[in-house]
Amino acid sequence: xxxxxxxxxxxxxxxxxxxxxxxxxxxxxxxxxxxxxxxxxxxxxxxxxxxxxxxxxxxxxxxxxxxxxx
Length: 70
Prior knowledge:
Layout lengths: L5 E3 L11 E5 L2 E5 L1 H11 L8 E3 L1 H4 L5 H4 L2
Parallel strand pairs: 1-4
Antiparallel strand pairs: 2-3
């Protein structure tokens, strides 16, 4: 079994306006500026070719109260 190394993103919720868009698995996902900034920094990082990131706003279904409370 291959172990993946994830970068957990810690970001301030700040302004909750979904002002930026990102493409994820062919779908457009609206995200906040405070999440967009670290994702952009990771994207531009020359150190690795594949980077795995985890952010609750993306990895947890924010519309599902039960999933959010786990």
